[in-house]
Amino acid sequence: MAKVFSIFKNGNYTKLFLANLTSQMGxxxxxxxFMFYLLDRFSNQPSYATLNEMMYSxxxxxxxxxxxxxxxxxxxxxxxxxxxxxRAILSICFLVSIWIGWIPLIFFIIFLRxxxxxxxxxxxxxxxxGILKENEYTTxxxxxxxxxxxxxxxxxxxxxxxxxxxxxxxxIIVDTISFVISALLLHACxxxxxxxxPNGKNKLKDLQFSTVFKDFKDGMQYIFKxxxxxxxxIGFIVFxxxxxxxxxxxxxxxxxxxxxxxxxxxxxxxxxxxxxAVLIGSITASIIAQKVKLYKLIIWGLLxxxxxxxxxxxxxxxxxxxSLSFIVGLSLPFxxxxxxxxxxxxxxxxMMGRVQGWLDPLMMLAQTITLxxxxxxxxxxxxxxxxxxxxxxxxxxxxxxxxxxxxxFEKHKSTATAxxxxxxxxxx
Length: 428
Hints:
Elements: H1 2-5, H2 11-41, H3 47-57, H4 60-73, H5 76-100, H6 103-117, H7 120-131, H8 137-187, H9 193-196, H10 209-225, H11 227-246, H12 249-258, H13 263-288, H14 294-311, H15 318-346, H16 352-377, H17 384-405
Helix pairs in contact: 2-3, 2-7, 2-8, 3-6, 4-10, 4-16, 5-6, 5-7, 5-8, 7-16, 8-13, 8-15, 11-15, 11-16, 11-17, 12-13, 13-15, 14-15, 14-17
């Protein structure tokens, strides 16, 4: 455990970690508080709450082709700082729009704020790759997973408590302060120029559409030509399938099978159980990853996760279902930590922004397709057991695929590229 947290001796990483933490805090508090506000203020229009969720995810489809290019072309530190400052300003505009009470304006500002947020993570992760040593990448991935699990466990409660205590205005002010603190922490980092500007200095005005499109295409070709990288990114598609499936199928089995009269209360308890499991799994995976080959963590994580998702469909006991879900939550971080720790080792730092820029849209696409299949097939074509086997079966199949292809890639542990025979795309 001491070895895991020794990474915080790196002052730049500590500031980046805290900046990421406060930035996510602002996003979660604002999104959750506003959902409660919509449900209170417009209780007869639940579609507003759904639109709120859409305004958080939809911008990915509009900016995914640009975020990675900017993270590789422009100053990564400035991108991360500017996203925080812009979101702080948009939060103030958000507060004003709520006072005005015009719903279209409110959702438009939420859309803009979410679109700006998409630029933060690729730039921040590319900086992390540059300031850490190779043997620290897996630890950083584990800590990142730990933060995500904490927000999974306490995020909604944090937003709800802020809303109940300070109202929607107070929650948005907390939002704004969080973004400002994140920006100041990022500004305090002393990042070497070769990490901030891996491809040299470029000006925003010089980025024409043809240049952006070429860089975007280069990033896609880099992923497809790099067989190990392409294989690992399949794992993120699986996360989209699991996220999409697990956003609805636990509620379905509680409502239609295990607890028809108390499914709402049981779903809250399940969320707590799952969040605790992910948190424990994140800490455990970060420690084990120092001693076990990463591809083994990925393979066994996928096989265990998929198997217990499928087994969950056979139980008639809430206690057993919660126990099986706990094991699923425990296994997921092993996959995420291993993939997140492996990626920085095999991706050229000059291409890291474009690679990271592909991950979110791929996950979202897989999540959307999964939800679409579920919506189209349940309950007319596919029953509850079929849904669990759909998600669990996909996960098991990818685990088997990785068991076949990943061991031969273990030799690729250089920090340059996954395959030295792949020519680096030129950047002019």
